[in-house]
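--- STAGE predict ---
source: upstream dedup step, 1 unique chain passed
mode: sequence only
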Amino acid sequence: MSGNVARGPWGCELYAVEIRTHDWPPLVAWYREALGLRVLLRVVEDEYALLAAGASRVAIVGRRDPIPVSSRMQLIFEVDDLESTCHRLREFAAEVSESSEHGEGFWQATVIDPDGNRLRLIQWPQRREIEGDER
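--- STAGE serialize ---
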């Protein structure tokens, strides 16, 4: 499934980020419906789903024991239209921050998924705006 992705000097590339959850069906549905990720593989008996997020993948794996949320890492999704994405997520009752401009030039907002994981959404300025500013 790796395609023609450039790998590091030792042939390494990140295949997927795994989210472990004790409430698998609703979390898979949320990532599919609210964020619009595409299901690549779904094995209900094993509570495993592999979702496409552009060229990246998110695996959602069901576990019986509650798993504490970690603030050590967060998923960052680049979106085409930050405001409409935030609006759609609020329709799914997600906790979404107001968008703000980051010092590096992109717009950002945070969202909490149904398991309490913090995600960041970013939108870069349109290419022509960047080219227009350089002239």
